[in-house]
Design goal:
Largest sheet: 6 strands, mixed
Number of helices: 3
Radius of gyration: 21 Å
Shape: globular
Order of helices and strands: HHEEHEEEE
Strand order of the largest sheet: 2-1-6-5-4-3
Number of strands: 6
Low-confidence stretches: 5-26
Mean pLDDT: 87
Strand content: 35-45%
């Protein structure tokens, strides 16, 4: 191998090693991001149950919106905080979200889909729903940018 070929081979090897290191680092960051996103979703439920508007608001982007199962849409942080806490207080029950899938649209935007259950409600019913949340990283922290709650229907054939 002549001098030029050796330099090209070493450059190609260095590029390949850098690419592998970048992918590996992103994989480690991805696991941390997934854990952080799941933590934000759980904190969303916990702050609702604790009736803590300041903590709930801190989990949301300023331009957050929420489509309820009724089809009504809450727009903006204040509307989502107020509406979520009002609903929590009026319907009661314990809410859980089980994230079934998490997809990164970009390094700073993710979509979480899952089952959303409200058990032991004040009216004696349990409600089993679906939810999709869009989360966006702002200032290094993951925040909820959009919430879509849905009532499942029978599968179409």
């Amino acid at each position: 191998m002549n001098g030029r070929a050796t330099v090209r081979a070493l450059a190609a090897l260095a590029f390949l090693l850098a690419a592998v290191a970048t992918v590996s680092a992103q994989g480690g960051d991805r696991a941390a991001d997934e854990a952080a996103i799941r933590g934000v979703i759980q904190a969303f439920l916990d702050t609702r149950e604790a009736n803590d508007p300041a903590a709930l608001g801190a989990l949301l982007t300023a331009d957050v919106d929420q489509q309820q199962t009724s089809g009504n849409v809450r727009r903006g942080r204040e509307a989502v905080v107020t509406g979520s806490l009002t609903t929590q207080q009026s319907t009661g029950g314990r809410r859980t979200i089980t994230v079934d899938s998490l997809r990164f649209v970009s390094a700073d935007v993710a979509i979480a889909d899952g089952r959303y259950d409200s058990i032991g409600r004040a009216d004696g019913t349990d409600q089993r729903m679906l939810t999709s949340m869009v989360l966006r990283r702002e200032g290094g922290a993951w925040k909820i940018a959009a919430i879509r709650n849905m009532l499942p229907t029978a599968p179409q054939r």
